């Protein structure tokens, strides 16, 4: 699915702004058939939960409805008219006037509907979008709904971030010609100093295909014809971490000399490879520095915000981070486009978080239930997971910043049934994209002794909390645990090893001269201990701290106003450790600490 763009043959209208809003309990039957009742308005894009002061809205479990009037531009006569939602968390249904035009399950990937036969250029229509936040054992991510005696419904889930819901990303109305480009796949390589660009175009209608590569100045550097082919860019400029360079592939559908449709897809020429225990970008060893992050800001919840996007990338540049993981779901496409332009490396993750019932047992003391069973994570869950992988790769396949797919966060890879669950998903991901490595973030319970699926993947990505959840306040013992853990993985596998989560909750402004958890000094000492151990192992290829910034979580005694493991506060103020990290990461760059500098740069 191509992202809507304004081109010589396409136009788009942004539908963001203020919409009418109602809970299903207030909207009545068939709310799309009339103007929504009540006086509530809501902003799009933004999660709805924190926009209101009514707890009944924030804690609602079930469907909510968004509605607005849309006018089709009168100049779109003879064109296809398409409605696109960048996301609806976690399920969406779309009505145009009284007609259901789209349904989609999955809260972080786009979906669309053609409206050509339902609307007329210059006319108006009533657009109603239902959004459901329910999570069950067969959804991704999973959850459980309980109903109290008074009928009140409560949602529980195993992921440690708030279940924000709604239209958190943009809504678009756009036009295309009847004969149009439907999809473009670009893969790149390098040979003898030239860039190799393989492309494949899917299109509808009868036409001749012309493909042209344009450099950053707009100059033509390669061209070909046909719906698939290989182009060669002499003297290519590579997309490099920290030094992005983007080309554009212009695809035109032609009838003689007449251009029927034109679409341009940005791309970068770069290679990614796992070789032994090294992670290589453009043939050079790459060392990840950065964060797990969240789409999370005050009031907006998971709503995309361009100002926060710019500021967050400025903070990552300031601190010397070269990468991040889209924990724990695909981020807005604007985030990846920004990473493409600024040379930030991305590990792109599905929304498969919480596939581990052992976490619940560990926190509550209750006996654990098997994660993989007919009554828990089952064949239906895996089918939903497979669809998430398909949609993630379909959306993000052409982004040069994306160097690895992470298909799950902290699954129960130590439990029986894990291999049967994951092996088909790994095969699917490799079939969809054989060019990028695969990983999954490994939970603390899954060790080098009992993990059952690591051989299926390319990179060992560890989530470990020695010194916080284990040996809290005892960094000497935590250091010993961490060192033994890394040695165990190194002895087991001949693969790159990195840390995708490690961190300690820290209350900004809390200080102590002792190793006191929650203080800023403890967070700094905690991270310094980890870095000391990391630097001992040449097989180690990266450190991504949990988390970039504090973020909101569900209510409960385990969190006070959210998760405080951020290096920055939720409003993006640096904690003390940010300055120590800046010194380390600015010195590292993209290479393993202690490795020889690249004389060619």
TrEMBL record:
Residues 179-270 form the Glycoside hydrolase family 2 immunoglobulin-like beta-sandwich domain. Its EC number is 3.2.1.31. PROSITE patterns: GLYCOSYL_HYDROL_F2_1 (PS00719). GO terms for biological process: carbohydrate metabolic process; glucuronoside catabolic process. One of its GO terms (molecular function) is beta-glucuronidase activity. Keywords: Glycosidase, Hydrolase. The keyword Hydrolase applies. Residues 272-588 form the Glycoside hydrolase family 2 catalytic domain. Pfam families: Glyco_hydro_2, Glyco_hydro_2_C, Glyco_hydro_2_N. The keyword DNA-binding does not apply. InterPro entries: Beta-gal/glucu_dom_sf, Galactose-bd-like_sf, GH, Glyco_hydro_2, Glyco_hydro_2_cat, Glyco_hydro_2_CS, Glyco_hydro_2_N, Ig-like_fold. Residues 14-177 form the Glycosyl hydrolases family 2 sugar binding domain. Belongs to the glycosyl hydrolase 2 family. PANTHER family: BETA-GLUCURONIDASE. This is Beta-glucuronidase. It comes from Allonocardiopsis opalescens. The lineage of its organism: Bacteria, Bacillati, Actinomycetota, Actinomycetes, Streptosporangiales.
